[in-house]
Amino acid sequence: MKAMPERTRIPGRHFLQIPGPSNVPDEVLRAIDQPTIDHRGPEFAELTLGLLEKIKWVFQTESKVVVYPSSGTGAWEAALSNLVDPGGKVLAYETGHFANLWRGVAERMGLEVNWIESDWRSGIDAGKIEEALSEDKDHEIKAVMAVHGETSNGVNSNILKVREAIDSAGHPALLLVDVVSSLATADYRHDAWGVDVAIAASQKGLMLPPGLGFNAISQKAILVSKECQSNRSYWDWRKILESNETGYYPYTPASNMLFGLDKALDLLQQEGFSNLFSRHNQLAEATRAAVDHWGLENVCTNKDEFAASTTAIYLPEEFNADKLRQGILEKYNLSLGTGLGKFKGRVFRVGHLGDINALTVLGTLAGVEMGLVDFGVPIKKGGVEAAMAKIQA
Amino acid sequence: MKAMPERTRIPGRHFLQIPGPSNVPDEVLRAIDQPTIDHRGPEFAELTLGLLEKIKWVFQTESKVVVYPSSGTGAWEAALSNLVDPGGKVLAYETGHFANLWRGVAERMGLEVNWIESDWRSGIDAGKIEEALSEDKDHEIKAVMAVHGETSNGVNSNILKVREAIDSAGHPALLLVDVVSSLATADYRHDAWGVDVAIAASQKGLMLPPGLGFNAISQKAILVSKECQSNRSYWDWRKILESNETGYYPYTPASNMLFGLDKALDLLQQEGFSNLFSRHNQLAEATRAAVDHWGLENVCTNKDEFAASTTAIYLPEEFNADKLRQGILEKYNLSLGTGLGKFKGRVFRVGHLGDINALTVLGTLAGVEMGLVDFGVPIKKGGVEAAMAKIQA
Amino acid sequence: MKAMPERTRIPGRHFLQIPGPSNVPDEVLRAIDQPTIDHRGPEFAELTLGLLEKIKWVFQTESKVVVYPSSGTGAWEAALSNLVDPGGKVLAYETGHFANLWRGVAERMGLEVNWIESDWRSGIDAGKIEEALSEDKDHEIKAVMAVHGETSNGVNSNILKVREAIDSAGHPALLLVDVVSSLATADYRHDAWGVDVAIAASQKGLMLPPGLGFNAISQKAILVSKECQSNRSYWDWRKILESNETGYYPYTPASNMLFGLDKALDLLQQEGFSNLFSRHNQLAEATRAAVDHWGLENVCTNKDEFAASTTAIYLPEEFNADKLRQGILEKYNLSLGTGLGKFKGRVFRVGHLGDINALTVLGTLAGVEMGLVDFGVPIKKGGVEAAMAKIQA
Amino acid sequence: MKAMPERTRIPGRHFLQIPGPSNVPDEVLRAIDQPTIDHRGPEFAELTLGLLEKIKWVFQTESKVVVYPSSGTGAWEAALSNLVDPGGKVLAYETGHFANLWRGVAERMGLEVNWIESDWRSGIDAGKIEEALSEDKDHEIKAVMAVHGETSNGVNSNILKVREAIDSAGHPALLLVDVVSSLATADYRHDAWGVDVAIAASQKGLMLPPGLGFNAISQKAILVSKECQSNRSYWDWRKILESNETGYYPYTPASNMLFGLDKALDLLQQEGFSNLFSRHNQLAEATRAAVDHWGLENVCTNKDEFAASTTAIYLPEEFNADKLRQGILEKYNLSLGTGLGKFKGRVFRVGHLGDINALTVLGTLAGVEMGLVDFGVPIKKGGVEAAMAKIQA
Fold first, then answer.
1. Least enclosed by CB within 10 Å: which of A10, D104, D332, D378?
2. How far apart are alpha carbons D348 and D334 in whole angstroms?
3. Is residue D210 reached through a cis peptide bond, with omega within 30 degrees of 0 on the bond before it?
């Protein structure tokens, strides 16, 4: 067993500007760094009851939120496994790479996916949802899978329109929405928009390390889940919701992550939705101002659909985006997001979500601009100043 | 949204002497309390490659270990879902409450469980395993589910004998073993004992907070999993093993918990198996010496099967064990394990596993003895001195 | 420059039962582990103004408390340097080793110390103070130096009687009291007892790491200090009190330790004086019960003067107390206090102060008892049970 | 006792860009956040012996370094009190505010200070030192007090020239140098430059929170100190050096800060002098490029004397620098240094020292530029781009 070499430390704080995991506030890390407690004791129940109440706020729901020790991909599986019978049919929309991954989950679970293709550069065309549902006369489609914030391309879809499309089609399908990178970075209204399950993860707007997955669940979804014939155990909402009633879990939950979640929710409430969303919007605008100034192309083509959390940027074809990212990491201690799926090598992504401020983003954009120059990409310098102008606007 | 009252702090460090979660070393908590990093960057790959190599040591295997963001119950489901086709048959042995819970998982997954009943007071009778397998002429049983350290009663089963029973029956069933509370507290030899999947969790002998589940997997199991027809995504070993080759995961892994795992493995290796197991044995012996002295009854009736991690103790029938535990918690800041399943209210459990030493256990036993006296349980005082004598023996 | 070998880790939490530094609560360590802030910014002023108000509570004073980045020995020097002119005369009482060290400080500062000798086994005989002051017809003695809790022998002196002795003598000398190990472990009433300066340090009852020294100062002392002719800069109260008015310091203060102090004061207030002192008393009583049971001799001979923080214990002459301590440290991961000054090798000390509870102390006493047995000291076993009886009384 | 309001949290990591305290690396904060240990035990001795050896490296000395629980102002007093007899004479040079403060310390200690005035905009004119010493025919001047890095104006003096001036004058005065903000940010060669005492503090280039003061001491200074007639106790090197021989202290040292120091020295050694100094130089150059571009005036007028740690910048007279700083803090979560002494309200300072990198400084400069614009200061925009050009040069 050879010892691993100690990781070499680059001076200064790392700029973690991928679109999640995002930077975890020191207060949250310190909350996680507390001694583990008895998950069957009164202190734990008090913690759980409090945070299960608090977490509804962030989803804007009065219904229930289930917290899993899992990744976000687990929470995708959870939503489907509680609602769709074996071999059942679902409708999914190709907003980008993560929609695609979610489709893969559904297929591996043995579901039949009705897939609406798209170009990865714009959000959901709700008309196509309505059309597909209208064609499904026998209501075989049990659920619509929609991605709110598509992390691979920085495109945010209008979920309310998806809801309206389902309603216009007079279709009983449940609405499942991936809010992994949109939650707590952009307005998301679980109840008002009539979403049945929202799928989230800890490492984005919630400002936690990865390790927790979430399902916010409508009352309708809870009813459907009670009748659902799928084989499931770990993801089964029923036992969890029952145990949660008294503040416990039917298994040993990830206590220390829950300590962090409790603290992170406090910080988010302290900031408030209005500040939270306007901050994210401003930082996203500043980023786009730099991209435009550089003369680079934003993957998202529709200005109404720019994500507050992420900007995905094309490099001119003759440059490899991953080599750019590697150079920037090594020289400037800045992590940027890779191009995913068909964007591999062509696109890089700037994450501007979570616990950051204007100076973090401006430092990030400075790193990107210098990296582009180092790499020989023909850009117009001055992107940081353009971003500053937007911050000051 | 009302603010939760701040938890009232009882002075001094809490004695967390449940049979898991165990006490997390400060070094491990501090490792977890580091800034999250890019799960697709080179630093992460270096971490993963190192720890996936290191973790084999703790299972005594040369094969593969898969790490999940999950509870231990998730790792149970993972093992079954990778190996048993839908509706398949498994053989399981009722060592106690956790064996029972695992059976429940299998059943909810739609598997048919051949269940060998037992009295929860002793370990696996390998002869019964051999008998059941011998009767299965058509080899319909795909896997044997055995619990190594049964946390509900402090009984450790002889896994090598189970292996031999399978072999004697000439049966091809895979051997799946729950080592959740035995791993890193008692000798467990994955390869030497011919185990196919070992199921573990982070919050016991591994000295971590809960939040990670493990499957150590034999080469035979890997081959079987490749052909397995079950619908699975999150638990699927194939994608994970493939991504792990280069140090990554097919989803965003629980980075900060992995930082802790890396550190915890270092601490365990530093102590070494010999010290680790003799320490746990000594602390378990000391605990039993106190129990015997008090005149209370150990749930485990077979002295060759005492668990190194846990001692489960009957209270005389007229006393409620949970009220005893509550009193001890409030008065002495000591958490003890509750009686599970049919032991509810009748049994309490002392955890003596993980990052503890003789004085921790003696303080714990002092708390138990005082609590018993406070509660009016007729015991012979002097249990702590009896335990001290065992420590000094 | 050779690398230091990594410290070998003994499993389980270390039992730090010296009479200070005491165990630091996790909450306090985590408070210290926050990013340092601008010591001239508004956040710092808010912190300082708050804690300088809060800290008065712990001294039971309405006057002022000065906090130094220093050891307790520095705070001794501070008190003298602000009040006694060069070459001035002070009266000091030999309660034990720390009284002796403080005398050394006064002498090195060029002061003339009128020294009342004693046997290190009992507290201050206030009559001797009165006598000495009465003989000082010209009031040359400027200050009386008294140790409240003498950490070297576990003797607590009656400070109110010292005050009364000074008053009976009709002497204007200031009363300076070392409360380093008594503060927040036993009742100390700065204003009610008419003390002029109380000298304290962070690493005892205040439950902090070492690094902060304190002077609680009466209005009379403040007035005297304004006229004092000593050459002083670092310790000078005047500039500090002036800067403190607006929440600042005339130098860069130890910010992170102040974060910890703020948190520690919150925890102490949450417990409250009544609980705090009765807890310390009970743990001290339990310790003495064990010592008595073992048949060993307590250094403190006067039962009205037992310190709540510390018990100092003689070993039979044929045994070396430091070898005993070394053995206990290596075998049981327990640190005990060494014999200081003339007690070197003859005495060991048990600290029972700060953030501890009954089980911590009982584990400690178990370690001591086992160590004594290992070392061949003829004792009567059963000390831990005797201590438990006291806890339950 | 009213509860303090919880501090309102501004999102994102605070940019602490004052010229000290500097940003503390997470690894160092986590090292400080370990349980306190017995300061008289073997583990402590091992720590101390290791770090007292390691710390010589950072001063480039083979002699001794004394570490105090104190501020840097305490370390000033320490140096003087160990070397200059009561009423003795010293020579000091007015490099700026901190030189002035140090003079104040000397005067309050009763020393006679021969003060060489200067304009706070350039470093030491060694010729004036030589002149003053040459006039001191009777060698009454015992020490020369020189500030290497003057934190109030960003001016670094040439200490080797001061040494040569003393030698040219054939004067036996000791050379005392304040390296508080230059140590570990710019080359400082204690032995090679013939310095007798270097005064340092923890919160600057050493990347620690404030709370430790340092004296690096030449053999000559050690000899002088043995004969020095000053009254001193806390600062006395003799007892400390003696205790340090075996790894201990004559008082309870600030253990947790020493844990941090040990770690910080490891990080600094890992980076190495060459990288450390070139990084600081580059970041300082980038800052000056922005200042020049904005058309603002650098306080330091001599390009050979620019400090690597700090840039002090004049605002046009009609603007108040503290109001600018306040606005920048509130709007951009960035702390800048205030103007000290006669610079009050006229000057602000950017700290670019310690654990930072290019993106931190560029984010900082963006904050400054935006703040200047917000405040209506007539500047030429584009300072960040000018700084970026310097980084990439």
1. D378
2. 13
3. no
CB contact, 8 Å: A19 with chain B?
Answer: no
Is the domain of D198 the same as that of D320? Answer: no
Residue B7 lies in a domain: no
Q: How far apart are CA A9 and CA D357, in angstroms?
A: 12
In sequence order, the β-bridge partners of residue A298 are A313
Q: Which CATH number is C211's domain given?
A: 3.40.640.10
Last residue of a domain, one of A240, A269, A298: A269
Give this complex's ipTM. 0.97
DSSP A240-289: HHHHHTTT--SS---HHHHHHHHHHHHHHHHHHHHHHHHHHHHHHHHHHH
CA distance A128 to A136: 13
C43: nearest CB among D7, D209, D250: D7
Verify that C263 and C290 share a domain, yes or no.
no
Q: Is C367 on the interface with D (CB under 8 A)?
A: no
CATH number at residue B334: 3.90.1150.10
Query: Are the beta carbons of C88 and C246 closer than 8 angstroms?
Result: no
Q: How many domains does chain D have?
A: 2
D312 occurs within a structural domain:
yes
Q: Which residue of C has its CA nearest to D34?
A: C29
The pLDDT tens digits along chain C (393 residues) read 344 444 467 899 999 999 999 999 999 999 999 999 999 999 999 999 999 999 999 999 999 999 999 999 999 999 999 999 999 999 999 999 999 999 999 999 999 999 999 999 999 999 999 999 999 999 999 999 999 999 999 999 999 999 999 999 999 999 999 999 999 999 999 999 999 999 999 999 999 999 999 999 999 999 999 999 999 999 999 999 999 999 999 999 999 999 999 999 999 999 999 999 999 999 999 999 999 999 999 999 999 999 999 999 999 999 999 999 999 999 999 999 999 999 999 999 999 999 999 999 999 999 999 999 999 999 999 999 999 999 998
**Sequence letter at residue A24:** V
End-of-domain residue from the set B245, B269, B293: B269
Q: Is D180 within 8 Å of D151 (Cβ atoms)? A: yes
Helix (H, G, I), strand (E, B) or coil at B268: helix
CB pairs under 8 A between A and D: 124
Written as one letter, the residue type at C230 is: S
Q: Of D26, D27, D35, which is closest to B26 when you measure between CB atoms? A: D35
Residue in chain C lying closest to A32 (CA)? C30
- pTM summary value: 0.97
Range of the domain at B333: 15-21+272-392
Helices (H), D69-218: 72-83, 97-108, 126-135, 159-168
- Decide if B278 touches D, using CB distance below 8 A: no
- The C-alpha of C30 sits at a distance from chain A's nearest C-alpha, in angstroms, of 6
**Does residue C45 sit at the B interface (CB-CB below 8 Å)?**
no
* B131 and B143 co-located in one domain: yes
Taking the CA of residue B218 and the nearest CA in chain C, the distance in Å comes to 31
How far is C-alpha B346 from the chain's CA centre? 22
- D20, C201: Cβ pair inside 8 Å? no
CA separation for the pair C181, C186 (Å, rounded): 9
Chain A residues touching D366 at Cβ < 8 A: 358-359, 362-363, 366, 384, 388
How far is Cα B49 from Cα B43, in angstroms, rounded to an integer? 10
End-to-end CA distance of chain D: 57
| Cα distance between residue B56 and residue B48, in whole Å | 13
Alpha helical stretches, state H, chain B: 26-32, 42-59, 72-83, 97-108, 126-135, 159-168, 219-227, 237-244, 255-294, 321-332, 358-375, 383-392
Residues of B in contact with D260 (CB under 8 A): none
Same domain, B241 and B353: no
Those chains having 3 or more beta-carbon pairs within 8 angstroms of chain A are B, C, D
A34 chain-C contacts, CB cut-off 8 A: 26-27, 30
Residues in chain C: 393
